[in-house]
Specification:
By secondary structure, the protein is of the alpha/beta class. 43% of the residues lie in helices and 12% in strands. Helix 1 runs antiparallel to helix 2 and helix 2 crosses helix 3. 47% of the residues are buried.
Length: 543
Amino acid sequence: MTVILTPYFSEGVQKLKMAAQPPPKPKRGLTPPALEETVHAVRCLAQLRSKDKGIEKYIYLSMLKEQDPAMFYRLCLSNMSEFTPIIYTPTVGDACLQYSHIYRRPEGLYVSIKDKGNIKSIISNWTQLSDARISVVTDGSRILGLGDLGINGMPISVGKLSLYIAGAGIRPSSTIPICLDLGTNNQKYLDDPLYLGLRQKRVPDEEMCAFMDEFMHEMSVTFPKLMIQFEDFSTDNAFKYLERYRNKYAVFNDDIQGTGAVVLSGFLNAAKISSAVSGRPLSSHRILFFGAGSAGVGVGMQLMSFFTLQGLSVDEAREHIWLVDSQGLVFNARGKLAEHKKYFSRRDYEGPPMTDLLEIIDYVKPTALLGLSTISDAFNASVIQAMAALNPRPIIFPLSNPVRLSECTFPVAVENTNGNVLFASGSPFDPVEYKNKMLYPGQGNNMYIFPGLGLGCILARVSSVTDSMVEASSLGLADSLTYEERDMGLLYPRIERIREISTHIAKDVIRAAQKAGVDRSPELRTMKDAELSKFIQSKMWTP
């Protein structure tokens, strides 16, 4: 057997370690005599495509990933646009809803409130302690737009990490999917005899906070090189725990920061196209958010960067953003507001409550309408036509997941803007032929951002994830389109280029970490950009 030694740096000193070896091929006689890898890839794809339901495809790919991970990721990389909607949104939403019924084998770590005081021993049961570099952690309290799913949220953590592996080449052995079971307030699951989680209501905030403090401390001790991504916590807890831990551990929240970064990237490209046609300066854009939860406010915070990049102050930037929640326009004189909504609450409106979206559009006169409400068809024909009447190239981003909760579809947006819409959605839509021209929808999929962001954080061994690093990931994505993609009117690059995109983003994230002084890999500081990009590519796992 050939032993390969690879260099690595520890405290600035170069050392050698044995590279991870692929599993040995089965001995002769243990596989059919004519089994050949290339043909078997065709066989696996044929088996996948023989399934006519998304959930059946998900179950098949889950089995393939367990039995033959190299084949799974090889096929994923070569069929990215086909695999992504199965292992992530929208199909992963159905997998979460049915998790306790389709469960076959454990994937990841399950840590429950019953483990409080003993969390260290629970997480120490993970079999690859020294390899761990990244974990996606959910408590299942707000999965996509599907509500409180409790332990059934585990497929979200599994799916996100599959995309870290495929999209950024992070080794499978370096990932830990985690679901925290703090109970569920979903009576349907509490009454389900097959439900795999604790049969109790969610614990009070104070008890959860003590649990989270213990969990985060023990994770940092047991996995000292680990970065944690929080995923699908309830709105208030998403903000609370991001703020509580972001300066103490290497942690970020994908719903708040990742969604914001990917939307900022698409908006940058859309705004440039819109302004080129209208003649309005970039600094004059007005953004209306329909939906004011953690994702909506998180995206709003990130889009502040768009305006500050145009030279506006933070206070001036905030004045270009409006929020709409279930009670209508968010403004100070309306009364008591949730804490996370106060930052963007309007101080310049004191009239009666404004609840009709068409009336709000007429008042705000937005250049961009962004949906994060999980209300299907909220952007109806009248709403879209109102946006088109105000703007020659209206920016409409229905970002809610899954597809059935999207605020509008791409064909409806095209038809009601005479093909002029600048469109990006949270879930995928097919291209549309309109007046003999093919129009391509953008998908503001977080998977453009988090693989490269995570890889950059891992390689730089960051102590925290700063706002400047998240912004760098967004600008890196916006800058990664090819000339051909821009000529096609795309707002995002083709997903098939995900590893090239992740390399670009990881480089920018590392540079931002170095500038912020949170990196702990000094050997990367002296590398030129081209050298750093080659280094990043060399660290990507290839199945």
